[in-house]
Design a protein that fits this description.
By secondary structure, the chain is mainly alpha-helical. It has helices at 22-35, 49-62, 77-88, 104-107, 123-135, 159-166; strands spanning 67-71, 92-96, 113-117.
Length: 171
């Protein structure tokens, strides 16, 4: 970044990919702001809220877990980032597509296992993994949900649809 040269340093802007690591992005943006004090960034946070929230939850959870299992596809950037976040926090972590990929050697000697999933992973895969642990003797009272932020995001329908609904044209 120190070698980056631009034609007009007073007219620089940035955007970020929605599934980047929140912490890594913050460091990069901070360095950009130091180098280009007048830099313009997005008006709102452009890292996906689900990605941000899940990374925060894994960061908090990983400190209490000996193992973190993340359900998600290997080509899912946000799933891969969740594994990296858990490992950066000192926890052993693996990315799995489903419960069938859990290896016995990962579980040896582990008392506390964290479970997370990428933003696009279906919830039934998480429930299947929890059922896998229940079948191994884990009680529901031993399972707790980590919720760092309550996701209550609402998306506005496009104006033509809202107008059609208001006019009674859509059922």
């Amino acid at each position: 970044m120190e070698r980056l040269e631009v034609e007009d340093p007073g007219r620089v802007a940035f955007i970020t990919q929605t599934t980047l690591s929140v912490d890594e992005t913050a460091v990069i943006v901070e360095r950009l702001r130091e180098r280009f004090p007048n830099i313009t960034g997005p008006r709102t946070e452009d890292i996906c809220y689900a990605t941000t929230n899940r990374q925060a939850a894994v960061k908090q959870m990983a400190g209490e877990c000996e193992l973190v299992l993340v359900i998600g596809s290997r080509n899912s950037s946000n799933s891969v980032r969740l594994v990296e976040v858990a490992r950066d926090c000192g926890s052993e972590a693996y990315l799995i597509d489903n419960r069938d990929e859990v290896r016995e050697e990962w579980l040896q000697g582990k008392r506390v296992v964290g479970v997370s999933s990428g933003a696009s992973a279906p919830d039934d895969l998480v429930q299947d993994l929890l059922d896998f642990f229940r079948a191994r003797g884990v009680q529901d009272t031993d399972i707790s949900e980590f919720q760092v932020v309550r996701e209550d995001v609402r998306f506005m329908l496009p104006k033509p649809i809202r107008e059609a609904v208001a006019a009674g044209g859509a059922k």
